[in-house]
Amino acid sequence: MRIKMRNIVLVIEYDGTNYHGWQIQKNVVTIQETITKAIKKITNEDVDLIGSSRTDAGVHALHQVANFKTCTNIPTSKIPNALNSVLPADIVIKDAFEADMDFHSRYSAKGKRYKYIIYNRRFSSPILKNYSWHISKSLDVEKMRESLKYLEGTHDFSAFKASGSSVKSPVRTVRDISLKKNGFNVEFEIEADGFLYNMVRIIVGTIVDVGLGKINPIDVKEILDSKNRCMAGKTAPPQGLFLTKIYY
Amino acid sequence: MRIKMRNIVLVIEYDGTNYHGWQIQKNVVTIQETITKAIKKITNEDVDLIGSSRTDAGVHALHQVANFKTCTNIPTSKIPNALNSVLPADIVIKDAFEADMDFHSRYSAKGKRYKYIIYNRRFSSPILKNYSWHISKSLDVEKMRESLKYLEGTHDFSAFKASGSSVKSPVRTVRDISLKKNGFNVEFEIEADGFLYNMVRIIVGTIVDVGLGKINPIDVKEILDSKNRCMAGKTAPPQGLFLTKIYY
Questions:
Q1: Which residues of A fall within a CB distance of 8 Å from B91?
Q2: What residue spans in chain B does CATH classification 3.30.70.660 cover?
C-alpha cells in the first residue's frame, strides 16, 4: 500500500454550456464540484481541487489545468480513464501527471491563452449557438485587426476589467493577440501572463464595436489609456470563450 | 389581399441533437413538425411541408430544403425572420424563395451532398460529442482514402442499404467522394444523385473498418460487388452526419 502523498495534475477539456462555471457554489452545478465528486468516487477522498482559471458560466475549456493532493495508490496513468468513466460526457480528463508538492495550478501558471469565436452571418447558427457570439451585422475584420496592436505588450488594463474584482495590480503583458476569419467565424486569440476578471470578454466587446464602425481602431488606445471601464465596450457573452492553454 | 397560391421553398439549418429526425411521428418531437407548427403560427394555415431528405434522429443539416403551398400574403423575403422568431434556436431558416407550383423538394432534387465527421483521438471531445463519431484507435486515413475510388461512379449500392427500405432501384451515381484530416477530425464528404437509406452511414462504418485495419481497401470493391448488406461494416452513428447541400 502506497503511503506517500502525491500532487496530481489533471488536464481537462469541457463544454461549459450546462455548468455554472468552474468554481464550487451553493445550489448550482459547477465543473470543480463535478470533478471533485468524481475524484471522491475513485479515491474515496475529499480533495481540494485547485483550478488554474475560474471560468465563468457557459465558458468552455480545451485545456484547463487543475491539481489535487492524494494518498490514493491508483497509478497516475490510469487516472484519466478512471475519472472519465464516472464523469459526464461534457467533461473529459485528457491527461494526468505527478508534480512536485509545491506545484499550484493557479500560482505556478506563467501564462494563459484564450480563444473567442464570433459567428458573423445574418442568421445565427444552430450548431454553434453554444460555442460562439452571433453578430448579424457585417464586421470589418481588417479594422478590428488594426486595433489589436494597441493592446499588445505591457499595460494597465483597468479599462478592460470587470468592476468588483479585487486584484493587486491591473498591469498585464499581452504576449500574442490575433484575429482571423474562418468561414463565417471570426476567431480571436489572446495570450498573456495573466488576465483580469472578464478582460478577454471586454476586449472582444470593444473590438466588435470597432468592427461595427461604432468606434475607430485608434479609440482602443484611448480606452486603454483612460483606465476607465465605462469607456470600453460591453462584455462579450460567455459562450464564445474557450480557455485553450495554460503555460508553466 | 393576396389570393394567388404560392409555393414557398425554405433553406434550413438545424442541430438534430434534440429531435427524432425530420419526419413527423407520433409522440416524439421532429423537425418537420416543429417547422410546420411555426408556419401555422405565422400564417394560420395547416401546410404540408415537404422535405428533400428525411434525416434520421440526431443527424444535422447545414442545408436542408423544404417547400409548402400557402395563401398567406407575407412577403417571401420576410418569411425567414418571421419563422425564426417563433422557432427554437436549434432550427434556423436561412432563406426563402418562391418556386413554380410543380417544384417538389424531394422529387425535383438532382443531387445531394453529405459530410460525416469522425473525431479520432484517444479521448472523446466534450464540445464535439453531438457532432462527430468518436474513435479512440488511430485510423489509417491514407488507406481509407484509397478505398474511396471503388465507390465513385454508378453502382448498385445494395450492400450499403439498410434493410427494410423500399426503393425501386439500388443504383446510384456517386459524383464526388473525399476524405481529409483536419486536426483530430477526419472529414468525409460524398455527393450523389441520391442515396439509399443509411447509405452514407454504412459507407462510413465500412471505411472505418479499413482505417482500423480490419479489412483492406480492395475489400470495399468486393463488398460493393456482393450487393450484400452483411458484408459491409456497421452503420456509423447519426450524430456525425450533416446534410450539406441539395442540388436542383
A1: 126
A2: 111-247
* Partners of A13 in beta bridges: A92
Residue contact A129–B62, C-beta within 8 A: no
Write the residue in B13, B92, B126 that is nearest to A91 by C-beta: B126
Which tens digit of pLDDT belongs to each residue from A1-23? 557 899 999 999 999 999 999 99
How many other CB atoms sit within 10 Å of the CB of residue B234? Answer: 12
How far is it, in rounded angstroms, from Cα A186 to Cα A201? 14
> For strand A133-135 and strand A111-120, is the pairing parallel, antiparallel, or unpaired?
parallel
Of A148, A124, A128, A142, the closest CA to residue A200 belongs to: A148
The verdict on a CB contact (< 8 Å) between B127 and A13 is: yes
CATH class of B111-247: alpha beta
- In chain A, list all ranges with CATH 3.30.70.580: 6-99
- What does residue A169 show for φ and ψ, rounded to 5 degrees? -120, 135
Q: Domain B6-99 falls in which CATH fold? A: Alpha-Beta Plaits (3.30.70)
Band (pLDDT 50/70/90 cuts) for residue A163 is: confident
8 Å CB contact between A156 and A149: no
Distance CA A205, CA A238 (A): 11
Report CB contact under 8 Å: A129, B15: yes
pLDDT, tens digit, 9 for 90 and up, residues A194-229: 999 999 999 999 999 999 999 999 999 999 999 999
Does residue B1 carry a pLDDT above 70?
no
Residues A163 and A229 sit within 8 Å (Cβ to Cβ): yes
- What ipTM score was computed for the predicted complex, to two decimals? 0.88
In this complex, the residue of A92, A127, A129 whose CB is nearest that of residue B126 is A92
